[in-house]
Amino acid sequence: MSEISTHQRILYFLRFMGLGLVVGVAYVDPGNWGTDIAAGSKFGYSLLWVVIMSNLIGIFMQYLSSKLGIATGMSLSENCSKHLTKSKSLGLWISAEIAVIATDLAEVVGAAIALYLLFKIPLIYGAVLTGLDTLLILGLERFGMRKVEAVIIGMMVLIGSAYLIEIYFAQPDWNQIGYHAIVPQLEQGGLIIAVGILGATVMPHAIFLHSAMTKTRKSMFDILKKEYEEKWNTIFGEKPILKGYCDKCGKKESWCQCKTNVREAMEKADILPNPYIAK
Predict the structure, then answer these.
(1) Distance of alpha carbon 164 from alpha carbon 40, whole angstroms
(2) H or E stretch covering 27
(3) Digit-coded pLDDT (tens) for 176-222
């Protein structure tokens, strides 16, 4: 009998979807818009394959980052600090901070320009408002990570809706999109913009963030632990064996015939094996 049902796996997966949408903000930021608009206005559809490739690389990196956080219970920075020497950890931290600051400049400047275009707010004040807006969203974390996720997911829905509307009015050539999405082509002068697209898509702060945010979710063991104990206590009542002791022979964390009988009884009762019982 499998310890984790398909239904439980699906629910466990859905718990992390909100985190994925939050991290997805990094892929719709002004840096992406700027490089993609520059590529499209100058080279048409010819650099679309770079966008596809960059996003595939980004998905792979985010996948590894989330698995690291789920499997270890620590973020990428915490793992670096634990497994690397102090000098290497310090060097990585400094380089990561520089990279994060460099990429965040595009976000602040882009938001300031957007506020100017929409409301004619001077750039300096737009930059200040952007910083205050960021602090406001971070302040929501005091009320729980779910609140932050809800706000950011709402923004993602708004941005996604705007994209769909723009695509509807733009009426792009889907045949050209399909062709250049899979056929590499690099025209003269396109290398710099191609590198810019890659750099604007695969960003370090999103990778660090994803591994850290997985810590806000309980592991599969934690989710099932309460269910195991409730079923166990319903059938057998609260016994010392829950903490690794056998209620008959008194042995600690040892596989004995007593535990074997209990395990068989649990399986016959059609409940999941208790995680405290050794295999």
Answers:
(1) 17
(2) none
(3) 999 999 999 888 888 889 988 888 888 877 888 888 887 766 555 55
What does the DSSP 8-state code read for residue 252? B
The residues near 204 (Cβ < 8 Å, ≥ 6 apart) are 96, 99, 100, 103
DSSP 247: T
CA distances from 59 to 17, 66, 206, 262 (A): 14, 10, 11, 45
Question: 9 — phi, psi (to 5°)?
Answer: -65, -40
3-state SS assignment for residue 43: helix
Cβ neighbours, 10 Å, residue 15: 14
Reference 211, options 92, 55, 73; nearest CA is: 73
- Return d(Cα 258, Cα 221) in angstroms, integer: 24
Task: Determine contact, residues 148/21, Cβ cutoff 8 Å.
Answer: no
Give the residues across from 252 on adjacent strands.
245
Question: What totals of helices (H) and strands (E) does the chain contain, helices first?
Answer: 13, 0
In terms of C-beta density within 10 A (0-12 exposed, 13-18 middle, 19 or more buried), how is residue 240 classed? exposed
Residue 247 backbone dihedrals phi, psi, to 5 degrees: -75, -10
User: What's the number of CA atoms in the CB half-sphere (13 Å) around residue 175?
Assistant: 0
In the numeric block, the tokens 């300096």 are attached to 124
pTM comes to 0.67
